[in-house]
Amino acid sequence: MMTRKVAYITGGAQGIGRGISDYLLARGWRVAVVDIDARAGEQYLASHAATHGEPDSLRVEAVDVRNEDAVAASIAATCQAFGHLDAVINNAAIADPFQGKLEELSLERWHQVLDTSLTSSFLTAKHAAHHLRETGGSIVNLASSRALQSEPDTEAYAASKGGIVALTHAMAMSLGPEIRVNAVSPGWIDVSHLQKDGEAESLSDEDHAQHPVGRVGHVDDIAALVAFLISEKAGFITGQNHVVDGGMTRKMVYVD
Ligand code: NAD
User: Fold this and answer.
1) 226 lines ligand 1 (CB under 6 A)
2) CATH superfamily of this structure's domain 6-250
3) Which tens digit of pLDDT belongs to each residue from 91-120?
4) Angle at 74 between CA 170 and CA 32, to 5 degrees
5) What atom of ligand 1 comes closest to residue 65's alpha carbon?
6) Residues near 42 by Cβ (< 8 Å), separated by ≥ 6?
7) What would the pLDDT profile of 63-87 be if each residue is shown by its tens digit?
8) Is 219 in the pocket of ligand 1 (CB under 6 A)?
9) pTM for the complete prediction?
10) CA distances from 111 to 64, 145, 239 (A)
11) CA gap 87, 131 in Å, rounded
């Protein structure tokens, strides 16, 4: 019997993380989701159980990824439950880039943003590395096109995502050849239908038309790339940042 692969996804109870989880579950993976939002986690488990019956492929645990002991314990629990670990997807973040004006941004908020996204990506890698080495597994870190370009009042978010791009190539050097590490940098991805209590956001024609590909991104645009990057087909790809933004970071934006 073929052994089913196992992924650990942070911040996977909603949004892109949940979309990645669904995508992998539909392709035979078993998935451990950790998320600070316990209610979102319960809703996700319940909706999965409603369509798939009692889940034996999906675990959801309430974990604050800024807490090293909690991260270490949840990775150990995942390996205990599923037997091994093949992929870590570092997706958790305070996903709102706009954290206020630079002169008014508190040091506490700065640390919260960096700890949730950047530091947690270090913590999961630290505690998952020996498991991933055993399976020849892989790590994908969710960065952002905001690692490469900015609007005002986004310093903490941009710094966390720029840090993730650098952390990704550093870890690729340290953890190779057994473990590959890549970053995915989404542009604008519509996640409104995958939010706790969420209703699909209505997007305007202009929202779509400004993108060189003619539309805002879907969660599966990200999930499909993540699934490829953690597969054997991506065996020659490591240390890279893969931008998935419908071409927006390649568009000249000077006003005439
Ligand atoms: P989201 O807010 O829907 O999902 C983030 C999840 O992380 C939430 O479920 C939240 O509860 C969880 N989380 C927050 N703090 C946590 C903590 N301390 N411990 C554990 N879980 C925690 O956001 P999203 O839009 O789905 O974004 C997912 C990832 O993609 C993020 O890294 C985000 O920065 C990145 N991204 C998203 C977009 C986009 O357009 N949606 C664009 C660029 C990058």
Assistant:
1) no
2) NAD(P)-binding Rossmann-like Domain (3.40.50.720)
3) 999 999 999 999 999 999 999 999 999 999
4) 85
5) 19
6) 60
7) 999 999 999 999 999 999 999 999 9
8) no
9) 0.98
10) 14, 21, 25
11) 10
